[in-house]
Every structure is written in C-alpha cells, then in structure tokens.
Design goal:
2 domains; Rossmann fold; alpha/beta; 14 helices; six-stranded parallel β-sheet; 14% strand; globular; 347 residues
Amino acid sequence: MKILLHSDMKKSIKQSGVGRAQLHQEMALTSAGIPYTTNYKDDFDIAHINTVFPNSLMLSKRVKAAGKPVVYHAHSTMEDFKNSYMFSNQASKGFKYWLNTCYNSADLILTPSQYSKDVLERYDIDKPIHVISNGIDLSYWQASEGEVQAMRARFKLASDQKVAISVGLQIERKGIIEFVELAKQMPEVTFIWFGYSNPYALPKDVKKAINTKLDNLIFAGYIPRDEVRVAYQMADVYLFMTHEETEGIVLLEALASRVDTIVSDLPVFDYLAGDKDVYKANSLDDFKNKLQGLLDGDLPSLSNSGYQQASLKSIQNVGQQYIYEYQYAMGLLKEEKQESNNFFGTF
C-alpha cells in the first residue's frame, strides 16, 4: 500500500496550517512504515489530498477514474475561511459550495477534530467523515539554553523581560487585532507575533493593527520551523486568541513545548480542560487577567498537563490510525465496485 500525499501550490501554503499538516503526515506515515510519494506521476495505491485548489479537484477525479481510492483531508471550512482576507466573508458561501464539490469527490474525508467534523456534517456532503489529529512530533519541540538566549539577544530582550508570543498568519481570524490591543494595555510585557500575510490582501483594520508602533510590540514576520521551535521556549506565555480553528497545529506545538498557554474558549478546544490543561479566555479582559496572573505567579503553571494532552496526539499514534483509515478507504472502493458489478449484472 503506497500513498500519494498531495498538496498544490506548496510555496503559497508553506506558512499555513495546511502546509504544516502535510509535513506531519509524512512523519506519521514514516513512523508507521507506510510507503508514500509526493509525486503524482509515481505509482501509488491511494491518493491523500490536502488542498482545495482546482488542480486538487482535477487530480481527485483522475485518481477516481483510474479506479483508485481518494482520501480528502478537510483542513478548510467556510467558518475558518471567514475573517481571513479581503472579501473572504462575501465569498464564503461560494467557498462552501466549492468545498462540498471537492470533498464529495473522495471516498473518505478526514478532518482534524470532532468540532470540524460536526461543522462538515452540516454541509451537503454524502461521504464518511473520520476524525484524525494532525499530530505533533513531541521530540522536536525543545531548545537549548544557548538557543533561547541567542533569540532573546536577537530581539534585544533583557534577561528578566516577560514575553508573550503568538504564531500564525497575520489575519483577523487568528486574533491579531486583539493581540495588538492587549499589547497596548500591558506595556511592561513584550508581545511578539511570528508569522506573515501579504498586506495587500488584508482588510484595513488588520493593516492598521500590523502598522501599530509600540515599544513592546514586535512583528517578527515569517521564521523557519526550526526558529519557531526556539521561540516557544523563549516565551513565558503562548497566546492563541483565535476566532475559529479546525484544530490548530500551533497550539499542539505550544503544548509540546511545555509553554503555558491561554486559548480562546472555543468548542474545538473542548478536549482541553480549562484551568487544568490550559487557561481559557472569553474576552480581552479575560486574556489580560490570566496573562497577568501567570506572569505574576498568581496562577499555577499548567504546562505539564498540557503536554500530556499533546502526547495523546503524537505522530506515532496518528501514524497507526492512518493504517486503519487507508484500509477503510480501500474497503469503501471495493464495496463501490461490487455494488456496481451487481447492478450491471441484473441486465
């Protein structure tokens, strides 16, 4: 059983969760001993598609026409398309229709969380939907003291300077406007946002936030994964002020890094217990109070408990689940062929 792991426009999605997701899939399949290729011209038995571009749909249809099963990974929903770039809200209904078309071209749909499955089950999709985490490489998310000190020096941070970070695209949905507002209210804390989005595609209020000049606010831009690894270790607190997610790979990275984390109180994070695994916030004031409590030592660290939750979604565990999912997809195709043969056998 050889898998085609496929994403289109890889350079464009490199900084996004979808780009990271395929990297995690490659690691998961390697851990489970499942052969794979990323070249659609190679021989393969199952296509596992991650993107929803026109060429992605065309590939799905070609693979189906060749009699091979297609697994479509539903990283995107209409809900997390909203509040991203200019006109995304106006285009969201059309995007939902397109998602229905892409996902219905598959035999099996995989999605990263129970929440995203619940969302997709309200769409016009008639294919089975299974939940599988994007997974996390627990051994990767650590850094040496030397690496941490070098990064602190890079950003000219005093040894006792408190640091709160966020990682992600510079879009409204990720909470960048709230992040900037929090920096305004807490000048004694350094706030650093790692990640980049093309400003020409951003609405005015997001551009205004990104152009905010504060002594304690740094927009570091896109940095490679190996530097993000160090950034988590440098942070006192990770802030995930997102409005909508299908899972949130960066959250798993933060938890694996054992950094104290405050997340938006959203249904997608119900698997994490508030005040036990992470701290959850419902408003800007809530984020501020909990951040202050962690930095002052009034709130206990939850980093070890958060790490335990991340460990349940390890790359190794996810790899074993992929074995089942691919076998399930093969079985669906066999059933479909059998039903087709039975139908034509009646004539």
